[in-house]
Design brief:
Binding site for UDP-N-acetyl-alpha-D-muramoyl-L-alanyl-D-glutamate: 47, 49, 183-185, 211, 219
Mean pLDDT: 90
Distance between the termini: 64 Å
Subcellular location: Cytoplasm
Modified residues (N6-carboxylysine): 251
Low-confidence stretches: none
Shape: globular
Radius of gyration: 26 Å
Number of helices: 18
GO molecular function: UDP-N-acetylmuramoylalanyl-D-glutamate-2,6-diaminopimelate ligase activity
Bound molecules: ligand UAG, adenosine-5'-triphosphate, 2,6-diaminopimelic acid
CATH superfamily of the largest domain: Mur-like, catalytic domain
Strand order of the largest sheet: 9-8-10-7-11-12-13
Domain Mur ligase central: 140-358
CATH topology of the largest domain: UDP-N-acetylmuramoyl-L-alanine:D-glutamate ligase
C-alpha cells in the first residue's frame, strides 16, 4: 500500500493573515487594519523585493546595509498583495504609497508590525501550513563537516530509493539539482518557502545545514526536525559571535531549543560530549545516538565516559581511500570482521560518514541496507577533491584553523616517504575572524614544506594586510612566499612542482568568485588548475 503524499500549503487571504498576526504577534492591532478585507489571496512570501510577484507578501526589514522599504518602488510595480514593514514609513515612502494607490485599481495594503522579526519563522511556518511536519527534516550543525555530512546522508538516502532535498552551502533543491544561494542556511521565510516547495515536489527527506548565524538570527524558527546532528565545534566566526563560548553556545541551541525525534552527537567533540551527558541525564522521549571516530580507550577516558553507539576499529588510510570496521555498542556484529571501503580521502571524512550512518541508524534503517551503499559515497565538490596527479593537486574548502590542520595532516600521510613535498596555497577571508589568521599561518608552517599566502575573498579589507596577519604566525620566512594575486600564486606553485609533490589549494573549494569590495568577480581555483593542466598537456604534445 502506498501512502498519499502530503499536500502543499493552501494560499491565505488577507483576513486570515490579519487574524494570525493579531493573535500571535505583539503590537499588531487588528483595529488599525482597514475594515474592508477584499478577497485578495496572498500566494508567496519573501524578504527580497527581487523575488516578489503579483499578490505576494513582501516583508520589509532592516538589514545591515539597507531596509526593505528602500525597494518600495520596485515592489509596487509588481503589485504585491500585502507589504508588512517593521517600521513606519518615512514621509517620502508614504507619498510613494499614496501615489501608487491613487493611480491603480489594486491597492497595496501596508501594515506596520514592529515585532515581526522575532516571530518571522513561526509566521512563515503557519503561512506555508507547517511544511517541516510533512517531511523528515534533518538539521546538521558544526564548524566543519556540515556540507560533507549532509551530502553523505543525502547520498545514502537517495541510493536507498528516497527523494531527498538539501539546503546548504552548495545550494538548495533536490540533491542532484541544487540552485545556488547566498547563505548556508537561508533566512526564515526562505527556509519555510523552500520546505513547502519540497512538499510540492514530493520529497521524503530534507537534509539541511544549520549555521551558527542561522541559530542566532532565528532562521530555523518554526522548523520541526526528525533528527538533529552535530559534527564538531572548533574556532570560527568570532567576528560575529564575539567569543568561542558564545559561538559554541549558539551551536548548542539546535539541540536544546528545537523539537526533534532524535539527536546524533559526536562524543569525541567537547560540545557533543556535554550535550550527550545532559540529554542522557534528562532521559526524555527523544532518542540520543552517540558516535565517535576515536579509539575506545580515549572515548572511555575520565572526560568522556560515554560508550558510543557507533565507533570504528581497524582504520586504515590507503591511496584508494579509507578502510574501517564498524563497532556498534562496543560489539561487532556476527559478520562484523568485514572491512568497509570508502572511496574518500582524509580521516575527518570517516567522522562525517559515521555521523551520516548514525542519522540513518537512529531512524530505523538497518545496518545491512546501509552498508551496501557505503562504497558508493562520493566526495563533495571542493572538499578533498583531487584535480590532478603528478603532481597531486587537491582542492579543499578548509578555511578554519582546525580544517586546515586536518587536511594537511591527512594529506601528509599520503606523501611517499622521502620523496616529494607538501605545498599549500591559501589566504583568509576579509571581514571575518582576524584571530584565526596567525593560527592558520602557524599550522601551515608546521605541516607543509612550502606555504604560499594569497587572497581569499578580501571583501572590504586590504589583501596585503590580511596576508601580513597570517604571516605573523609564521617564524621561518624561507619556506613562505606571498602573492596577492590568487591565480598567479596557484600557477607559480604548480609551475615549480615536482611530480611527487602534493599541492593543497585551500579555502575556496567550490566557490566560483573572488569577493572584493562588495563585488563577486568570477574566479575558480578549479578552473585555474584545469587551465594549467591543459597548457601542460598541450606543451607536451606541441
Ligand atoms: C550578516 C548577514 O547575515 N547578512 C544577511 C542579511 O543581509 P543584510 O542584513 O546585509 O541585508 P541588506 O542587504 O541590508 O538588505 C536588507 C533587506 O532588504 C532586502 N533587499 C535587499 C536588496 C534588494 O534588492 N531587495 C531587497 O528586498 C533584503 O532581502 C533584506 O531583507 O540578509 C541577507 C538576505 O537574507 C543575507 O543573504 C545576508 O547574508 C550575507 C550574504 C552573509 O554573508 N552572511 C553570512 C555572515 C552568513 O550568514 N553566513 C552563514 C554561514 C556560516 C558558516 O559557514 O558556518 C550562513 O548561514 O550563510
Ligand atoms: N569532520 C571534520 N572535521 C574537521 N574538518 C573537517 C571535517 N569535515 C570537513 N572538514 C574540513 O572542513 C572543510 C569544509 O567542510 P564542509 O564543507 O563539509 O564543512 P561545513 O561545515 O559545511 O563548512 P562551511 O560552514 O564553512 O560551509 C573541508 O574542506 C575540510 O577541510
Ligand atoms: N561560510 C563561510 C565560508 C568562508 C569561505 C572563505 N573562502 C572565506 O571567504 O572566508 C563564511 O562565509 O564565513
Amino acid at each position: 500500500m502506498t501512502t498519499a503524499k502530503p499536500i502543499s500549503a493552501q494560499p491565505k487571504n488577507i483576513l486570515e493573515i490579519s487574524q494570525y498576526l493579531s493573535n500571535f504577534i505583539e503590537g499588531f492591532d487588528l483595529s488599525e487594519v482597514d475594515a474592508e478585507y477584499p478577497e485578495v489571496t496572498v500566494k508567496q512570501m519573501s524578504l527580497d523585493s527581487r523575488a516578489i510577484q503579483s499578490n505576494d507578501l513582501f516583508i520589509a526589514l532592516q538589514g545591515e546595509k539597507s531596509h526593505g522599504l528602500d525597494f518600495l518602488e520596485s515592489v509596487f510595480l509588481k503589485l504585491p498583495g500585502l507589504v508588512i514593514s517593521d517600521r513606519v514609513l518615512t514621509e517620502q515612502e508614504q507619498i510613494l504609497l499614496d501615489a501608487h494607490n491613487q493611480s491603480h485599481n489594486q491597492k497595496v495594503r501596508l501594515w506596520v508590525v514592529a515585532d515581526i522579526q522575532s516571530q518571522l519563522g513561526n509566521f512563515a511556518a503557519w503561512f506555508y501550513d507547517r511544511p517541516s511536519q510533512k517531511l523528515k527534516v534533518v538539521g546538521i550543525t558544526g564548524t566543519n563537516g556540515k556540507t560533507s555530512t549532509a551530502f553523505f546522508t543525502g547520498q545514502l538516502l537517495k541510493n536507498l530509493g528516497h527523494k531527498v532535498a538539501l539546503i546548504g552551502t552548495l545550494g538548495n533543491g533536490e540533491i542532484d539539482n541544487l540552485q545556488q544561494s547566498a547563505n548556508t542556511t537561508p533566512n526564515s521565510v526562505q527556509v519555510q518557502r523552500l520546505l513547502n516547495a519540497f512538499v510540492e515536489q514530493g520529497m521524503d527527506w530534507v537534509v539541511m545545514e544549520v549555521s551558527s548565524h542561522a541559530l542566532c538570527l532565528g532562521r530555523i524558527q518554526g522548523v520541526t526536525f526528525q533528527t538533529v546532528a552535530l559534527t564538531q565545534v572548533t574556532r570560527d566566526h568570532i567576528d560575529f559571535h564575539g567569543t568561542e563560548e558564545a559561538y559554541s553556545e549558539a551551536k548548542s541551541r539546535l539541540f536544546t531549543e528545537y523539537e526533534t525525534q532524535s539527536s546524533v552527537l559526536n562524543v569525541a567533540d567537547a560540545l557533543g560530549n556535554k550535550l550527550c551527558h545532559e540529554k542522557l541525564q534528562k532521559n526524555n522521549s527523544e532518542t540520543v545516538w552517540c558516535y565517535s571516530s576515536e579509539q575506545l580507550k580515549k572515548t572511555l577516558s575520565a572526560d568522556y565516559k560515554i560508550l558510543p553507539d557507533l565507533r570504528c576499529d581497524n582504520v586504515q588510510l590507503t591511496q584508494q581511500g579509507i578502510k574501517f570496521t564498524p563497532v556498534f555498542h562496543n560489539k561487532r556484529l556476527a559478520d562484523n570482521l568485514e572491512i568497509i571501503n570508502l572511496a574518500l580521502m582524509g580521516l575527518f571524512n570517516l567522522e562525517n560518514v559515521l555521523c551520516a550512518m548514525s542519522i540513518l541508524l537512529v531512524n530505523g534503517f538497518s545496518w545491512q541496507v546501509i552498508k551496501s551503499k557505503l562504497p558508493l559515497l562520493q566526495s563533495v565538490a571542493g572538499r578533498m577533491q583531487v584535480l590532478g596527479k603528478s603532481p597531486t593537486i587537491i582542492l579543499d574548502f578548509a578555511h578554519t584553523p582546525d580544517a586546515l590542520e586536518q587536511v594537511l595532516t591527512a594529506v601528509r600521510s599520503h606523501l611517499i616517504d622521502g620523496n616529494g613535498a607538501l605545498k599549500v596555497v591559501f589566504g583568509c577571508g576579509g571581514n571575518r575572524d582576524q584571530g584565526k589568521r596567525p593560527l592558520m599561518g602557524a599550522i601551515a608552517q608546521s605541516l607543509a614544506d612550502k606555504v604560499i599566502l594569497t587572497s581569499d575573498n578580501p571583501r572590504d579589507e586590504a589583501p596585503a594586510k590580511i596576508i601580513k596577519e597570517i604571516a605573523a604566525g609564521i617564524n621561518q620566512s624561507d619556506s613562505v612566499q606571498s602573492m596577492v594575486d590568487r591565480k598567479e600564486a596557484i600557477s607559480q606553485v604548480l609551475d615549480h612542482a615536482k611530480e611527487q609533490d602534493i599541492i593543497v589549494i585551500a579555502g575556496k573549494g567550490h566557490e566560483d568568485y573572488q569577493e572584493i569590495s562588495g563585488v563577486k568577480h568570477p574566479f575558480s581555483d578549479a578552473e585555474v588548475v584545469q587551465d594549467w593542466l591543459l597548457t601542460k598537456e598541450s606543451k607536451k604534445h606541441g
